[in-house]
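Why should sequence recovery work at all? Because a backbone constrains its sequence more than one might expect. Tight turns favour small or flexible residues, buried strands favour hydrophobic ones, and helices have their own preferences. The token representation captures these environments compactly. In the example below, the structure is given first.
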């Protein structure tokens, strides 16, 4: 019997999602808790591999059990009791045996948060960046991303990618009433460190180091050395994973991680 699990986590204490020897990861933590509750070995497959320190305000994973879970809500309550405070399990849904949290995902969305002022309560959840930024120029540059499909300029070296091609459907900055900047980007897939490299380069557009035309030249160059340093991990959140409706429909509503 296969189940999809919707969850959220603060990645600050973990070396990413994927299981690693002698390192705490979200996958390993979930597998240990589920195995204890279900009294059998459990392998959890996630929708994607978030990097060290990266968060998820929405995440989907699947796992198989030998027998159907009799009371899913009770299992969720017990699971949340066992999990550390930085991981929350939100829903448990039975799905078809062939449904796959990673391979069936059609779109993934990330959000990156920048605060223009010091805030001691959110310093582990955003990039507190005090240099004034021209959001109009940043959006002009961000809109160009949808014109490209090769993002080698933002691909981390030695990542063993079969291809650096991605299809970006949306990329834009917004500013809320308190001045917090949010970059939302949605694509069919992402490369390792890609979003943080894009954000870092767009911030350099906003502070005047590059023009929007210069940003286009960086993307066209397919040269990682042309892009800026990646933005800090703590401001990045995986915020949505979308599936065909016949595979899975999101149960949990979106939550703003800074509120």
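From this structural description, the recovered sequence reads:
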């Amino acid at each position: 019997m296969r189940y999809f699990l919707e969850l959220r986590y603060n990645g600050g204490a973990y070396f990413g999602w994927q299981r690693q020897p002698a390192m705490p990861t979200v996958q390993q933590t979930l597998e240990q808790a589920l195995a204890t509750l279900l009294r059998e070995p459990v392998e959890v497959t996630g929708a994607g591999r978030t990097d060290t320190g990266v968060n998820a305000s929405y995440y989907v994973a699947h796992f198989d059990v030998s027998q159907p879970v009799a009371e899913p809500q009770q299992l969720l309550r017990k699971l949340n009791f066992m999990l550390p405070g930085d991981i929350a399990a939100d829903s448990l849904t039975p799905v078809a045996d062939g449904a796959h949290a990673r391979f069936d995902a059609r779109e993934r969305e990330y959000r990156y948060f920048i605060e223009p002022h010091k805030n001691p309560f959110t310093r582990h959840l955003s990039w507190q960046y005090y240099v004034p930024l021209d959001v109009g120029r940043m959006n002009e540059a961000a809109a160009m991303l949808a014109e490209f499909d090769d993002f080698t300029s933002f691909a981390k070296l030695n990542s063993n990618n079969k291809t650096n091609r991605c299809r970006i459907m949306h990329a834009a900055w917004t500013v809320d009433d308190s001045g917090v900047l949010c970059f939302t980007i949605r694509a069919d897939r992402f490369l390792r460190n890609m979003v943080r490299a894009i954000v870092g380069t767009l911030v350099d557009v906003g502070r005047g180091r590059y023009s929007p035309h210069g940003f286009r030249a960086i993307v066209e160059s397919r040269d990682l050395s042309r892009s800026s340093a990646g933005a800090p991990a703590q401001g990045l959140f995986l915020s949505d994973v979308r599936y065909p409706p016949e595979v899975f429909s999101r149960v949990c509503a979106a939550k703003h991680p800074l509120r």
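A few observations help interpret the result. The chain has a mean pLDDT of 95.
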